[in-house]
């Protein structure tokens, strides 16, 4: 989760400590459509995976991102 | 009389492959530095006052870093993907000073393609005498069917 939080904090310019599974575009001003696209590319690069379009459009919050990453074999030590 | 504009290349997302590189060259003149100062309002003496430039550790004026970085816009807007380009983001590091008359080599290497969101990530570098003077990373997408 730390690596994911680092990526989210970097792209969205928010404090890592503020990030929870409920963090979403609705409650983060900087999570706009543009940053959403950049976030996808950063996640793909940093975790060396490729999302499908359906996965991208189904993500509504950080919890959904974690679920999508788990589907690609990413393990979170929480 | 209207000046003839150079024509941008016209690449679609599917035409571009990871690992491809695109380059062009440019020599920056003092006149262009002064034009950049006029456009941006940045008349900092480090760029525009010869007497001040001589007193600095560089011993002469240096080119605005953002003028050098602006050639990254040229690379994506004219070369890869060219006509279809929509520039999403750009990171920058100014690593060495550039002086009037320096010969720049502007280079972009496609480092990743996200098929899901149709975004290219391009590693950007400007070289003078084989040394990197400005570097960064661009993210671009393509406006296809327009």
UniProtKB/TrEMBL annotation, chain A:
Please tell me the species this chain comes from.
hydrothermal vent metagenome
Record protein name field: Carrier domain-containing protein
PROSITE patterns listed in its UniProt record = CARRIER
Q: What is the lineage of its organism?
A: unclassified sequences, metagenomes, ecological metagenomes
Q: Which SUPFAM superfamilies match?
A: ACP-like
Where in the numbering of this chain does the Carrier domain appear? Answer: 1-73
What's a Pfam family this protein contains? Answer: PP-binding
